[in-house]
Design brief:
The protein has 443 residues and is of the alpha+beta class. 31% of the residues lie in helices and 35% in strands. The chain has 8 helices and 16 strands. The protein has a 7-stranded antiparallel beta sheet, with no helix packed on it. A hairpin with a 4-residue loop joins strand 1 and strand 2 (208-217). Helix 2 crosses helix 3 (33-40) and helix 6 (100-117) packs across helix 7. It is flat, with a radius of gyration of 46 Å.
């Protein structure tokens, strides 16, 4: 049985007979290769101007292309042969109009129609009208067919989407089930039912942390011993013997170097047989995570000139009176899952002249401690309760800093601002203030 011909299949056969690829046909029609592919797969129907253009290129009648009349290869004349690329330009008609060749094809359709109904010959105008009606009906049928294919394609897309959704859901369920099975297997193979590690202290000078580690064994005997091991990111290992009671083994006051990553494990030994298992990993045990993060400054800086005659100088020089106000202060502590950061116990504003180690003036900030007790951090902006006034002489430097003592006895100094008056009375601000400044350091 002969395979049923569709518009797309006829376009494909005619294109191949003309020796054209989908891309070259698309270029001649001014459409993409994908558009031609959709026509040939009956996923879309070409517009009328494209049908007319293809009938010229393939050298077939529109009726034959649409399947409303049979195409007889022996009836073709030389003028009906497929155009070669770049040929036929002289016969081309304006877009939307029929050339003589297309009119002849339409007339052929009409003649066959007249023979079928045995009616007298019609005038050329009537033939064209009837031909247009036939072509319109054929196009309508093709468009209806294309609409049907479009609806079918939409339905297939919906079904495909549902299938993808089902596959995704099943895949997720399988993945979750596999994870549960893996967790169950891991729990069954673990030596310990539960474990815990906590940083109980630290020393920033020595850059060490002190840990308390405990682990509950799933099975043990009275003679079972345990050994904890810490593996650092650089490969160094440290061990600590654990004390045990009722299967719970603990190591207290275990001091280790600070590190970005500390991997803990434990081994159990019973009757000379040893088995080991991983416990947990401590992250971010670095010095910066055990310091307070402090920022601040003064929003109000008022200067006024003062005239002073220095002894030994032959001319009076200008000193300046400086008033600072509008304190802003931020204090935060960044801890981790295994440790908490420090907490401030004392906050004080200090004002130093030149490289003095003793402040010229100091002002406690109790509100900062109150805010910390309430929220665990301090955010003070433009507080006008704290002001400082002094006379700055030429070639002198004033440094305003905040001193914070934390619950581990550490003292943190943070510069809020610094000003220097040169010999001509001009105010200068030192650049690149050091983050690890201490009283007496030269700016």
């Amino acid at each position: 049985m002969r395979e049923q011909q569709t518009l797309g299949r006829r376009i494909q056969e005619a294109r191949k007979a003309a020796g054209l690829s989908q891309e070259s046909l698309g270029e001649r029609l001014g459409v993409s290769r994908q558009a031609v592919s959709k026509w040939e797969s009956d996923a879309a129907v070409p517009e009328l101007e494209n049908l007319i253009a293809m009938s010229r290129i393939f050298g077939v009648t529109i009726g034959a292309l649409l399947g409303v009349e049979p195409e007889a290869a022996e009836d073709r004349s030389e003028g009906d042969a497929p155009e070669a690329p770049g040929e036929g330009a002289e016969d081309a008609a304006p877009a939307g109009e029929l050339t003589d060749r297309e009119l002849a094809a339409v007339e052929a359709i009409v003649r066959k129609y007249l023979e079928a109904v045995r009616r007298p010959r019609w005038s050329r105008r009537k033939k064209i009208a009837v031909s247009a009606g036939i072509c319109g009906a054929a196009l309508a049928a093709a468009l209806a067919l294309g609409s049907g294919f479009s609806a079918l394609g939409s339905r297939l897309d919906q079904v495909q989407g549902q299938v993808y959704g089902i596959e995704s859901s099943v895949g997720s369920q399988i993945g979750a089930l596999a994870g549960q099975i893996r967790d169950i297997l891991n729990e069954d193979s673990n030596l310990f039912a539960v474990s815990q590690a906590q940083v109980t202290d630290y020393d920033l000078t020595a850059e060490t942390v002190t840990l308390q580690v405990s682990a509950q064994a799933k099975s043990w005997q009275d003679n079972t011993t345990a050994l904890f091991t810490a593996l650092l990111s650089d490969g160094r290992q440290f061990s600590a013997e654990a004390s045990g009671k009722n299967g719970t083994f603990t190591a207290q006051n275990w001091t280790l170097p600070m590190d970005q990553e500390i991997l803990l494990s434990a081994s159990l030994t019973t009757d000379g047989v040893t088995a080991a298992d991983q416990l947990e990993t401590l992250y971010d045990c670095l010095p910066g995570n055990f310091r307070l993060d402090v920022w601040g400054g003064f929003s109000q800086t008022d200067w006024s000139n003062q005239w002073t005659d220095f002894q030994g100088d032959s001319w009076p020089q200008t000193s300046k009176r400086l008033t600072l106000g509008g304190l802003s202060l931020s204090i935060n502590s960044y801890g981790g899952d295994s440790h908490s950061g420090p907490a401030p116990t004392e906050v004080e504003l200090c004002f130093f002249r030149d490289q003095e180690t003793v402040p010229e003036s100091s002002i406690p900030v109790p509100e900062a401690l109150e805010l910390w007790a309430e929220a665990g951090f301090v955010e003070m902006y433009d507080w006008t309760d704290y002001t400082f006034t002094c006379e700055l002489l030429p070639e002198e430097t004033l440094t305003a800093a905040v001193r914070i003592t934390d619950d581990h006895g550490q003292t943190t100094w943070t510069i809020l601002c610094a000003y220097r008056l040169d010999r001509s009375g001009n105010v200068q601000t030192p650049q690149d203030l050091p983050a690890d400044w201490h009283p007496g350091d030269l700016l």
